[in-house]
Amino acid sequence: MELVEEAKIVAKVSEYAVAYDFEVYDIIGTITWFRKNRNLVYSTIGLYLLAVYFGQKWMKSRPAFKLTLPLFFWNLGLALFSIICTLRGMPELLNFLSKPDGMYLAACVGPPHNFATSFWGLTFVLSKFVELGDTAFIILRKQKLITLHWFHHASILLICWIGYEYYETGGRFMFINAFVHSFMYCYYALKALEIKVPRTISKALTTLQIAQLSYGVYGVFYVLFVWARGRPCRMNLETVVFGGSIFAIFLVLFIRFYRQSYTSHNKSKLK
């Protein structure tokens, strides 16, 4: 099937999502602005890493801040955003995946634009700047800051920015991450209030994160397979290679974290 014909199918399955007035924006102009200002994300990541390093040094000789209510409302706000983002963005992805050859439609076919999905995709990218604040709470409360945390925030911000620059079709899958965050930030909000959450919940959340990363790695190999067969796919090599590398690294780190946190051998060591 030719790309133009598949685009027509996408047009039909996209009709269900009606955008509100505030969700209609200048997509081309925004993409152009992102492409001209990639240095902004590099600068932000650089400042973030400096803040992580010097923030921990600054807090070393100071008592930990409690920050119970600010942390609760912070996580609650991110949870509500993630839920709305999922509700507005996920239906298009699920609709595509339900069609014959749905993985190809979702991952490789671009036009026409769906404003509702596009708008919440943009807000999802911008939310990665906001989520850097998660690290501030860890540092100010003098909790252990693991490598997985700061590396995750910095690299995801960069890959989301680059993905929007190219307006990647595979960006539709970002709403899986929003879905996972809906549960994750609800969990963090409860933990902020010192509500005892069963260990099985945290274990399930880590498992869910591993599952989404595994699906991300699968998606990268799928696009490479499509290219190998000579089939058109509107994805950029930079995003595929960089994104695939990041997903693979995350997958290894999360599996390592799972084993350290939940296996019986390591649980006894932690005790």
TrEMBL record:
It catalyses: a very-long-chain acyl-CoA + malonyl-CoA + H(+) = a very-long-chain 3-oxoacyl-CoA + CO2 + CoA. It holds the Pfam family ELO. It comes from the Eukaryota. The keyword Transferase applies. This is Elongation of very long chain fatty acids protein. GO terms for cellular component: endoplasmic reticulum membrane. The keyword Membrane applies. PANTHER family: ELONGATION OF VERY LONG CHAIN FATTY ACIDS PROTEIN 6, FATTY ACID ACYL TRANSFERASE-RELATED. Coiled coil: none annotated. Belongs to the ELO family. InterPro entries: ELO_fam. It is found in: Membrane. It comes from Allacma fusca. One of its GO terms (biological process) is fatty acid elongation, monounsaturated fatty acid. It is a multi-pass membrane protein. The chain crosses the membrane at residues 40-59, 71-90, 147-167, 173-190, 210-228, 240-258. One of its GO terms (molecular function) is fatty acid elongase activity. Keywords: Fatty acid biosynthesis, Fatty acid metabolism, Lipid biosynthesis, Lipid metabolism, Membrane, Transferase, Transmembrane, Transmembrane helix. Its EC number is 2.3.1.199.
